[in-house]
Amino acid sequence: MMQQSGKVVVVSQHYPPDPSTTAAIMAAIGEHVAREADVLVLSGTAGSAAKAAGGKPQVVEVGNWMPGKAALLKRALAELLFTIRMFAALLAKLRRGDVALTVPAPFMLPYAFAAAAKLKGARSVLIMHDLYPDVLIMAGLLKPDSLPASAMRGLNALMFRMLDAVVVIGRDTEKLLLRYGGMTSDKIRFIPNWATLARGVRAVDPEILRRPAFLDSSRRVEIDLVRQHDGAEHRYGKIRIVREVHTGVDGGQSGNYAAHYGAPVGFGQYSGDHERDHQ
């Protein structure tokens, strides 16, 4: 998707020294592509330009205000302001023939990103970590038929028409995207999340299992798999254990345990489940 004359523009609110997983992924992409092409990173993280000074890729900071997570109204305003600033930065930096890449963080960013790329004649790629409004509906924050949910779906349809490619990290996401008229199968690329640790046999870390493995009255337990990396916790999977009870014709009961493992593909969604039953 790259042209010889164009550059690659990586757009991200999070970039090192931000310790988040998104920052690490976007930095890995930018640094890898910079070996073969000119790369410009538009970053919303303070200090990211200084950290990358003198090296590749080139990093330009875009002003970003980050209120605390509990200040919901301030966070919404901050994310709107950041999206507007990033839109202006894209209009200033993008050129025809460039390739631009971003993620939905904040969730408003991809709409401005796709519009700016279209206006400037650049090609655009979205790495779809979360699909809105679906994640908000699954979290119980929005009703499926609410006005905000309908508005997001309308914006999604326009955005998908403008985007050149969408990278999904879970196989189940494709069928959700294809509900939109502006999305076609040839635009979708499935690339699962990759491991950032070197291959090798390691001792089991007891801190991986963050919740006790016992069944409560609902006969179900969910265990998050979490690892420490760069001083932060990263969830990389979930084990679900369910006890299924069967009552025979004589009134007796028997049961089995079904264990499922899934890797996260979005908020509350897991793909690639594996099941094992124990009597």
Short overview:
The chain has 279 residues and is α/β, with parallel strands linked by helices. It is built from 7 helices and 11 strands. 28% of the residues lie in helices and 29% in strands.
Q: Can you walk me through this structure?
A:
With 279 residues, the chain is an alpha/beta fold. Helix content is 28%, strand content 29%. The protein has 2 domains: 8-190, Glycogen Phosphorylase B (Rossmann fold, 3-Layer(aba) Sandwich); 206-278, no CATH class. The chain is built from 7 helices and 11 strands. The strands form 2 sheets. It has a 7-stranded parallel beta sheet, sandwiched between helices. The chain is globular, with a radius of gyration of 22 Å.
Number of helices: 7
Average pLDDT reading:
78
Major beta sheet, strand line-up: 3-2-1-4-5-6-7
Low-confidence stretches: 209-219, 259-279
- Return the CATH class of the largest domain: Alpha Beta
Structural class: alpha/beta
Beta-strand content estimate:
25-35%
The end-to-end distance, rounded to whole angstroms, is: 52 Å
Principal-axis shape equals: globular
Radius of gyration: 22 Å
